[in-house]
Design goal:
The chain is an all-alpha fold. The protein has one domain. It contains nine helices and no strands. The N and C termini lie far apart (about 45 Å).
Amino acid sequence: MEAAYAEDGQPALGPARSALVRRWRGGAIDRETALRLAFLDWLSCSEPEFLTGLPDVYSLEPDDISYFPAASQWLLSEHPDDPEVLFCLGLMLTSFPECVGASSMIEAERQGESLLARFWARPDLDVDAFTSRGAYGQYFAHMRRVAQPPDGRPALRPRRRWLRRRR
């Protein structure tokens, strides 16, 4: 379903999100569904619709919400020490905290930094874990290849802080 986006760069992720939402609403909640749904809802806010085919979930009708908060809460309660959960949620929370449905961006950043610190304490997540997992896998395989812990701290900091330091 995500092949047109992952392989050809076409804005085609809307149907994938719709399918994941149907699974979630139908009670078919599992690790993969939660990871991918959180990612697509985060991506819908962090990237423009013309690139992804995803409408910004924060501009949708009131009955169609972002599932990032519920999916991330489920993941952290069911898989609290899973390296992939720590890495992926940590990156999403710190890089675009405004896209996670949190009431406080500062709190979202702090939670993301905490998750990344826990991940870097034992970073046993191989890039091959993301193979054949659509847009989600493509994105996080790239991030896993480039993310390195500088001095034991999370590698990716929120962009606003990075930009402030360069001025």
